[in-house]
Amino acid sequence: MKADFSSSQDIIFVLTNLIEYHPLRMEAYYSSLKTLGLLLINDQKYFTTPIDPEAELSKLESADMEMCGALLTMLLREDYWFENAFDERLKQGWPQKIVRRMIRLAQQKQFTIQDSTAGKVL
Known about the structure:
This protein is an all-alpha fold. It has one domain. Helix content is about 55%, strand content about 0%. The protein is built from 6 helices and no strands.
């Protein structure tokens, strides 16, 4: 699935809605990533294994839109392996920081997304 939005405003709308109305719901992050075509499963493309979430999150400031999607997907997958991990990441502010970065990129019209989501979701 590839993001196919007519403008950066569409992307900003989805992400702003997430932050303003559903900032603490893991399902909302999942749904927003899926809507944007950024729920990425090919983590070998983005991360070395074994994945070190702390090291990967340190790359946020230079992350493009696709990498931001990979980082959020990583946090969702982390919760699968470690119960309540996403809640801890929410307390630390990581999902919100990633979404704010994505909004900045969309505002700058830097949101070209390669079709890297083929295959199973999560």
